[in-house]
Design a protein that fits this description.
The chain is mainly α and 94 residues long. It contains two helices and no strands. Helix 1 packs antiparallel against helix 2 (43-93). The longest helix is centred in the last third of the chain and has 51 residues, at 43-93. The two termini are 32 Å apart.
Length: 94
C-alpha cells in the first residue's frame, strides 16, 4: 500500500512539473491579448478574460474538494466498519 502511495506521489510530482511550462506560456498569451485590447480601450474583453481565468481557476478546486470530501467520507465509513468487526471478533474470542 505504501509503495502504491509513493508511486502516485511521484506521478503527481512529475505531472506537475511537466505542466508548468504549458500554463506559464498561456499567461503570456493572455497578457499580450489584454495589452493589445487596452490600446483600443476595449474593457469588456479584458473583463471577460479575467472572468474566464477565474472560472478556469475554480474548477480544479471544486473537483479536488469534491473528491476529497468523498474520500474522507469513505475513509470514515470503512474505519467504523473495521472497528465494528474488531469488536465482534473480540466478543467471539472471549
Amino acid at each position: 500500500m505504501k509503495i502504491k502511495l509513493i508511486n502516485i506521489r511521484i506521478f503527481i510530482f512529475i505531472l506537475f512539473f511537466l505542466t508548468v511550462n504549458i500554463t506559464y506560456s498561456q499567461c503570456a498569451m493572455c497578457k499580450s491579448s489584454v495589452e493589445s485590447n487596452a490600446k483600443i480601450e476595449v474593457t469588456n474583453r479584458a473583463q471577460g478574460l479575467n472572468y474566464g481565468i477565474l472560472y478556469l481557476m475554480t474548477i480544479p478546486y471544486i473537483l479536488f474538494g469534491t473528491l476529497g470530501y468523498f474520500w474522507y467520507k469513505q475513509s470514515k465509513k470503512s474505519k467504523a466498519e473495521r472497528q465494528k468487526i474488531d469488536s465482534i471478533l473480540k466478543k467471539v474470542s472471549q
